Amino acid sequence: MHKWYQDDGTWSMIFYPMVISAVAVLATLIYASYLDIRDRRVPFVIWYLMLIVGIPATVWLLYDTTKNASLVAGYLALVASFFYANYLDTREPDAPFRFLYLAVVLILPALSWFVFAKIVTLSLIPWYGMYAGVLLYISYEEYRKITPKTTKQKRKRQQANISDALSRWYFVLVIVIFAIASFIMMFGAGWGFSGIYIALAAIFCGVFYMFGRMHLFGGADAWALIFIAFCIPTFPVTPLLNNPPLGFLSFSVLINALLLTLVAPLGIFIVNVVRGNRAPMRYMFFGFPVKGDSVQDAWGFVMEEFTETKDCGVD
To answer: What is the pLDDT of residues 65-81, one digit of tens each?
Structure first.
C-alpha cells in the first residue's frame, strides 16, 4: 500500500510496507551494533530478525505497485541465490546436502523469466542454461566433499584446494547473469522501470558479497548492506530534498557511511585534543590511549607494539 500526500505545494509519497520494514531493519541494526561492540562479531542468525519482516514487506510493495508476479518471483530468486551461496560457504562437509535449496534457486528464476513473464523472451534461455549449469556444477562439487580421514585423502584434499579456490568465485557469474536477465526483463518482457530495483540490487549486493569474500569489507557490514537492499529497496518516505536519481536506498546508505567515515577521524582528533591526550599525529586521528591493565576490555585494535615487563619490586 502506498499513498500520495501534498505538503506546501509539493507531492510526496509514503510506502507503508517500507516503513514497517525500515522499523524492523533499524531495530536489527541497533541490536547487531550492540553485539559487535560487546562480542566483536555478529552471528548470521541475527539478520533473520529483519528478514522475516523485510522480505514479505518488499514482496507486498512490488506486487501492490506493479501487479507483476514475474517481478516478484525475480526478486525472490535473487534473494534465494544469496542465501544459497551462504549455505554453500558455511556448510560442513559431513552435513547432509540440502537438495531442496538447490531446487528452489533453480525453480524461482524459471518461474520469473518464463512462466509468469508477460512476454517470453527466447534470449533468456541460454542465460538460464548458464545459470543452472553453474549452480548444478558447484552443488555437485560441494555434495561430493568428504572430511579427509587418511593421509592419502588429506593429500588429495590439498591438491584440490586450487580448484576449490577457483570455485569460490562462481557467484560473480551468477550475479552477472541476474543483472543481464533483469535488464532483458525490463525492456522486453514486461517488468518496466520497476525492474531497475532488482538489477541494481543484483549488482550492488553482488559487489559487497565479493568484497566480504575477499576480506576487503567486514562480513557483518557486507551482509548488513546486502540485507538493507533486500528489505528496503526504495525510500519509505520521499526525502526532504526529494528522491536521488536512482531512488535506491542502499546506495544512499553506502554514500552516507563513506562520508561519516571521512568525518570520524576529525571527531576523534577533537576528543583527544579536548582530553589533553598526546601522541604522534596519526594516532590522534584514529585512536585513544588505553591503560595497559585494561587493554583486553577495550573495544578496537592495538595501534602500536608493546611488551609486558615484570615488576622487580625496586623503587
So the answer is: 889 999 999 999 999 99
